[in-house]
Amino acid sequence: MQLEQAIKDQLKTYLSLLEREVSFSLSLGEDEKSRELKSFIEQIVAMDDRLSITETDRELKPSFAINSADIQERVIFAGVPLGHEFSSFVLALLQVAGRAPKISGADVARIKSISEAHDFETFVSLSCHNCPEVVQSLNIMAVLNPKIRHTMIEGSTFKDLAEAREVMAVPQVFEAGESIMGGRMVLAEILDQLAGKQSSEDLSKVEPFDVLVVGGGPAGASAAIYAARKGIRTGLVAKTIGGQVNETLGIENLIATPYIEGPKLAEALKTHMDEYDIQLIDREEAVKLERIEGEEYPIHIELSSGAVLRSKTLVIATGARWRLINIPGETEFKTKGVAYCPHCDGPLFKDKKVAVIGGGNSGVEAALDLAGICSEVHVLEFLPQLKADQVLQERLREQANVTIHTNAQTLAIEGSTKVERLRFKDRVTGEEQSLDLSGVFILIGLMPNTEWLDGTLELSKMKEIVADPRCQTSMKGVFAAGDCSTTAYKQIIISMGTGATAALSAFDDLIRMG
To answer: What's the first-to-final CA gap in the chain, in angstroms?
Structure first.
């Protein structure tokens, strides 16, 4: 394989940052994948005299470890780390070569305090935009703690191993052959799972806020930035920064930004918030809202930890999540054939038969992606016709391996230990049909994250928070923005706009309060 010149140019800049010599320990077979990996490493080694190659015999072939004088066989890549994992490779190379990871001192201390030995394996696909976060976090842990080893396993290179482990969603982390973690996780969440949740400060003693924002997606970040720019005390509570944006592969309709990937936008949101005096309370969720009249800070928000935060005004921007169809087998086979992200999990179903439930834009786009990977794709739509844009429908009908089923009521997803079939009923004839398949991708829209507000605020029949043009809700001093509200369209740029509107409306209220 030949690296593109753009990649080589990018690497030259990074290689100048190496602080010590590094060797790549290769374990190769006689197959084409081994030849590709060897060529990949040889081209990189040729770019800097501080890099070298050794050979060893590892169970996983092809694979390579990134080694230095004091870090041996702790950071391993099984398969060529291109695509989204190229950044994981570059960061691991720099960190093994002496560059300090960009994490907090508290996280460094937590990693070094882990006394048990761990040997992690993370299955990824190179098109998965959620995988690098997990791979990079575990690599950092392996660099900083000599008792930890981590191997990234590229699923399509080790297809038989992935099937033997029944890997049907990525990222998926194994230890001693058993799955221990799955899905997108940040370093702090991984440390919580391995070392126990860190005892945080007593949040109930946190000084009250002028504006408190609940939610860390585009709407929440926008609200927090606009509030902080007014010079008022601003806080933001979020489980993760970025929200649903982290699940988005490519964003091409954010004005003045022709293309950006979701995780990169999430990073940019965090970086922008860091420019202002915003108190971030992460890895927490709001579970209860109460307004107590007569108090200077009447808005009370109870968190999942039991702590209570107080504020004069509140902006709710909790976003939305993938809507479930609530049929037998959906939750039982999640990560065992039931999936929601074709970009991440699609490559695991290469040459297999799958179904996509949902005939809107998301569903049809997923079917188009999967048509290039899978042997057969069945699209099921409940209504008499697809709801996607006409141009997408036309492209879908051009695919020889795609079958469209309209008026299809999904009844059950069935199997033993993984998905084996899908049952549905024709709503016109009443006839039941069964499809033997390996995967079911569910894309039927979003569900607002508002359950915790039921009975407290006025909600629409779709469970969205009812908000007026100022983003004012049914409770005084409480505003709603983004996908959790009744704003007409669920778009990132609109969420940012409503977040700004909500913050400015809250500031207007504060002025009137004096």
So the answer is: 67
C-alpha–C-alpha distance, residues 193 and 203, integer Å: 21
Interacting residues of 360 by C-beta distance below 8 A, sequence separation 6+: 386, 387, 388, 443, 444, 445
Catalytic one among 131, 344, 471, 484? 344
For residue range 323-360, what is the model confidence (pLDDT) as tens digits? 999 999 999 998 899 998 898 889 999 999 999 999 99
Active site residue 341: yes
Residues 6+ apart with CB under 8 A from 193: 180, 181, 185
Token pair for 38: 């060897």
Separation between Cα atoms, residue 99 and residue 20, nearest integer Å: 9
The catalytic residue among 131, 341, 471, 484 is: 341
> Which tokens hold the place of 304?
């999942």
- Give which of 238, 411, 435, 207 is closest to 328, Cα–Cα: 411
Q: Of these residues, 345, 369, 483, 509, which one is catalytic? A: 345
Q: Is the predicted pLDDT of residue 168 greater than 60, yes or no? A: yes
Residue percentage of the chain with pLDDT more than 90: 84
